[in-house]
Specification:
- The protein contains 1 helix and 8 strands; from the N terminus they run H-E-E-E-E-E-E-E-E.
- By secondary structure, it is mainly β.
- The protein has a 5-stranded mixed sheet, with no helix packed on it. The chain has a 3-stranded antiparallel sheet with strand order 1-3-6, with no helix packed on it.
- The longest helix is centred in the N-terminal third of the chain and has 9 residues.
- 19% of the residues are buried.
Length: 137
């Protein structure tokens, strides 16, 4: 049955998901960023070793004249929450998290933004969710 479950997850059927919620929308450099991470089981049990959160800086890059898009620049803070457990079918688990931001962060600008990313590794999947966060002066 495990092979069938992996095939389902590859095409996105009944897969487990990860989602960020209750994220502080505006923060100052050097303060704590609060959020909640919710893991939801799919149609079958999956092993979850840990959940990783990282606070990334993205900058505007230009791939063609006049056409820019934001791309990963650097990671400023991260935390790993060890779980080492099985997420049951249709089970939901919510974890409150706090991430301390560095004191030298520049505020958001036209060509600079920040995102909070939550991800985990599940066999056959790598669920990930990102939420923009504004760093204010």
């Amino acid at each position: 049955m495990e092979i069938l479950d992996r095939l389902k997850s590859i095409v996105g059927i009944g897969k487990a998901t990860i989602e960020l919620s209750q994220v502080d929308s505006a923060v100052r450099a050097g303060t704590e960023l609060h959020a909640s991470v919710t893991l939801r089981g799919g149609d079958y049990d999956v092993a979850v070793q840990d959940v990783r959160l990282h606070f990334d800086e993205e900058r505007m890059v230009y791939t063609a004249q006049g056409r820019g898009d934001f791309a990963f620049w650097q990671q400023h803070a991260s935390i790993t929450i060890p779980l080492g457990r099985t997420l049951g079918k249709d089970e939901e688990m919510t974890l409150p998290v706090v991430l301390t931001l560095p004191a030298d962060l520049a505020p958001n600008a036209e060509a600079l933004r920040y995102v909070l990313v939550a991800e985990t590794e599940i066999p056959g999947l790598n669920p990930k969710h990102a939420v923009p966060v504004e760093v204010v002066a």
